[in-house]
Design brief:
The protein is an alpha+beta fold. Helices cover 28% and strands 21% of the residues. The protein contains 7 helices and 14 strands. The structure holds benzoic acid and fe (iii) ion (FE).
Length: 300
């Protein structure tokens, strides 16, 4: 085998093969066949990686230190392992495997670490910003199934960062802002006020940020607004919309979350332009976006 410029002798290859076989066989008796499949495949790929790069013991130690630091920085608000999965594209690959394209269903993208389960409910046309700073943005659309039938009472969770690129869970206090949930009306329509999304860096003051820096990668995410949509009998959709004129789209998204179908026009409206619901924005400019959501059936 020739790897990383090193040629291994047949005797050495046999030693390495025998170790792989022994470790794989150690899972043969696992009572759960799926667990057995996952562990044996993991071992095969992990050993193939170690052999491919001819991993040094110093590099192995660095990897252990990296994972240890990731564990130490992780708590109920900071999830370094999700970040690691995201920047390695593992989150998006898992989403791709589990959300195969189905007719015209809206595409899924990365969940991220900033969802909070108990965000307040707002009425249709309500404001999710909770006082977070940013340009007001009117968002409206419909939720339908893939046959075009409206989905009434679909639950829509929305969350986003403020104009400085911070989610509320990153604030020093316990304030909740930039997130809410609402329900579609009897015709499957929804509307709310949010903030025009801006690009922001994923948390990069931990080991994942150090890794990105070491390899010359940016932590920036393209500007987006998160959605999670649930409705009886339909596949739950976790997705974002991306801002069509965001320069970061051309530069790249640090977690590989962008899909062309999710890039959405955010139309700038100058100050004084009447708002859709007559709201007085006190002279502020605003933006508007339309996002029609199509949910796939469950189990496709
Ligand atoms: C987010 O969009 O909120 C996010 C996604 C992946 C990593 C960090 C943040
Ligand atoms: Fe985000």
């Amino acid at each position: 085998m020739t790897t990383a410029g090193t040629r291994t002798s047949p005797e050495q290859a046999t030693v390495e093969d025998q170790l792989v076989d022994a470790v794989v066989a150690s899972f043969d008796g696992a009572p759960d066949p799926r667990l057995k499949q996952v562990m044996q495949s993991l071992v095969r790929h992990l050993h193939a990686f170690i052999r491919d790069v001819r991993l040094t013991e110093a590099e192995w130690n660095t990897a252990i230190e990296f994972l240890t630091t990731a564990g130490h920085i992780t708590d109920d608000k900071r999830q370094e392992f999700v970040l690691l999965s995201d920047v390695l594209g593992a989150s998006m690959q898992t989403i791709a495997v589990n959300n195969q394209a189905y007719q015209g269903a809206t595409e899924a993208t990365v969940f991220g670490p900033f969802f909070v389960a108990d965000a307040p409910e707002i009425p249709l046309g309500g404001d999710i910003s909770g006082g977070a700073a940013g340009q007001p943005c009117w968002v409206e659309g419909t939720v339908t199934d893939t046959d075009g039938n409206p989905v009434p009472r679909a639950r829509i969770e929305v969350w986003e960062c403020d104009e400085d690129g911070f989610y509320d869970v990153q604030y020093p206090d316990e304030r909740m802002a930039g997130r809410a949930h609402l329900h579609t009306d009897a015709d499957g329509r929804y509307r709310f006020w949010g903030l025009t999304p801006v690009p922001y860096p994923i948390p990069d003051d931990g080991p994942v940020g150090m890794m990105l820096n070491a390899v010359g990668r940016s932590p920036l995410r393209a500007a987006h607004l998160h959605f999670m949509v649930t409705a009886e009998g339909l596949r739950t959709l976790v997705t974002h919309i991306f801002v069509d004129d965001d320069p970061q789209l051309a530069i790249g998204d640090s977690v590989f979350g962008v899909k062309d179908s999710l890039i959405t026009p955010f139309v700038q409206q100058s100050s004084g332009t009447p708002t859709p619901d007559g709201r007085d924005l006190g002279g502020s400019s605003w933006a508007s976006a339309r996002f029609d959501i199509v949910l796939a059936p469950v189990d496709v």
